[in-house]
Write a structure and sequence with these properties.
The longest helix has 19 residues. The chain has twelve helices and 20 strands. Helices cover 32% and strands 22% of the residues. By secondary structure, it is of the alpha/beta class. The strands form five sheets. Strands 9-7-5-2-10-1-11-15-19-20 form a ten-stranded mixed sheet, with helices on both faces. Helix 4 packs across helix 5. The structure holds guanosine-5'-diphosphate, 6-O-phosphoryl inosine monophosphate and magnesium ion (MG). The site of magnesium ion has 6 residues, from loops.
Length: 423
């Protein structure tokens, strides 16, 4: 059976967690394929809000298996915190959560290296979440990493010590002011590793192949967004993994020809947290209103998110790279009350009009070209049917579908599971 993918098409925080939770009732297995605790996926139901970082967003559905794939990087400490929170919600995660032996571990010293690297960059910093993501993927590709499966070997602590010692000398090399107590960090780490080891480790690529043969339905859950992809994002202001569709193949061991639907999620406007170019960013009252109404604060770091108009040049690029088959538009409710809306349909790039996402998207090179739309006054948050949506919103949606040549199958009108309109 084909594997469906769900990915963010912008700079993350599109609402992936909400939609995975909504779709989980249609799937047997939910599988995270990349990223780590830099992600913050928010789910809202029964009046409660839950934020997941590493654990797949299907965890609140009893019947689904939730798999952390080989492409994910796991910080045992953050993982344990997530498990502790689930336990308070009476979620029986031992039954439903499985972890790939090939997933890499984030060590306390990876977090220190992240902090040291950012501090050394000064103004040029990436705006990393400081969760140790970059250094951990560097050790993975540098062939130095420690994997979940290593925890089952007798000598893993020796491997750990050698790597942590090396990291400490690298931290010193950065020559930045960084206070830390490694002993304390390690005590917490080893405690958390014990908890991690009590969970079920699997050879996940084999597990998924067997599941496919058994006609089990699988949804791969992306983290971050396409414009943060290590290859296709706004490099170097990106994360360190492939957040795009190809990442699901390498991050789970799924063959390209077994991919079915590719669900592409985007906000009705655009946000970005951290540094880096953002052509349609707003620095005025309109952007401030989007941030306030949309409650645009990072689910992992609490930082305020930068806001701006929808960018179709960037969105078309993301749809192409991912082979998106269905679109899902989130946070339409946030745009209620805006007199007029703008959508960027092309860039003026150093004097030329272009329609593709160029190599260099720094704002000094780009002036967005906008198409204007009428806004709508109606509050959407109680609406549950397409027929009740305001005419101006339908015009907006139809314009996007025509430009992107992909149907918008879901319109989200609030954070709750129930505030989801299928078209
Ligand atoms: P993710 O990282 O893609 O899972 O997204 P985040 O959870 O980081 O950020 C999305 C934020 O928007 C969360 O606070 C969600 O609760 C919220 N949200 C999701 N969909 C909607 C929506 O349609 N309307 C509103 N107002 N909020 C939404
Ligand atoms: P979800 O899954 C938004 C951003 C960081 C920073 C850059 C690199 O919740 O959509 P990293 O810690 O990965 O080295 O940071 O990427 N970033 C995200 N922005 N949502 C995320 O995840 C993000 N994960 C990383 O802000 O700019
Ligand atoms: Mg998020």
């Amino acid at each position: 059976m084909a594997v469906d993918l769900l990915l963010g098409l912008q700079w993350g925080d599109e609402g992936k967690g909400k939609i995975v939770d909504v779709l989980t009732s249609n799937y047997n297995i939910i599988a995270r394929f990349q990223g780590g605790p830099n992600a913050g996926h928010t789910l809202v139901f029964n009046g409660m809000k839950h934020v997941l970082h590493t654990i797949p967003s299907g965890i609140f559905h009893e019947d689904a298996v939730n798999l952390v794939g080989n492409g994910v990087v796991i910080d045992p400490v953050i993982f344990k915190n997530e498990l502790d929170k689930l336990a308070t919600q009476n979620v029986d995660y031992r039954k439903s959560l499985v972890i790939s032996r090939k997933a890499h571990l984030i060590l306390p010293t990876h977090r220190l290296l992240d902090a040291a690297s950012e501090a050394s960059k000064g103004k040029a910093k990436i705006g990393s979440t400081l969760k140790g993501i970059g250094p951990t993927y560097m050790d993975k590709t540098g062939r130095n990493g420690i994997r979940v499966g290593d925890l089952e070997l007798d000598n893993w602590k020796e491997k750990y010590r050698a790597l942590a010692n090396k990291h400490e000398s690298m931290v010193a090399f950065y020559n930045v002011d960084l206070e830390y107590d490694l002993e304390e960090l390690e005590t917490e780490f080893f405690e958390a590793v014990k908890v991690l080891k009590s969970l079920k480790f699997i050879d996940s690529e084999e597990y998924l192949h067997q599941a496919q043969r058994d006609q089990k339905s699988i949804l791969a859950e992306g983290a971050q967004g396409s414009l943060l992809d290590i290859d296709f994002g706004t490099y170097p202001f990106v994360t360190s993994s492939n957040t795009t569709a190809a990442g699901a193949c390498t991050g789970l061991g799924i063959a390209p020809n077994s991919i079915g639907e590719v669900f592409g999620i985007f906000k009705a406007y655009t946000t970005r947290v951290g540094s880096g170019p953002f052509p349609t960013e707003l620095f005025d009252e309109v952007g401030e209103t989007m941030g306030r109404v949309g409650n645009e604060f990072g689910a992992t770091t609490g930082r305020s998110r930068r806001c701006g108009w929808l960018d179709l040049v960037a969105l078309r690029y993301a749809c192409q790279v991912n082979g998106v088959t269905q679109l899902m538009m989130m946070k339409a409710d946030v745009l209620s009350g805006f007199k007029a809306l703008k959508v960027c349909t092309a860039y003026n790039y150093k004097g030329d009009i272009i329609h593709h996402f160029p190599y260099n998207v720094e704002s000094e090179n780009i002036t967005p070209i906008y198409t204007d739309f009428d806004g709508w006054e109606e509050d959407l948050t109680e609406m549950d049917n397409e027929s009740t949506l305001p005419k101006s919103l339908l015009t907006y949606i139809e314009f996007l579908e025509k430009e992107l040549e992909i149907p918008i199958k879901v319109v989200s009108v609030g954070p709750d599971r129930k505030q989801t309109i299928f078209r």
